[in-house]
């Protein structure tokens, strides 16, 4: 049996290579998901501990620092 292969001249769109998050960026993304959930599974413990561990004497400093932490999660 002889098989004839034809060249496909159409280009397929390139698929971006996934980029895995690490460190605080990863924890920030996890914290966002965990804070938005009604139930927090055990997997939320590390990220929520990091989030709630941000604590200053001045509540506005705490709120700003926590927001800055969550903003480390990429939007795209």
From TrEMBL:
This is Uncharacterized protein.
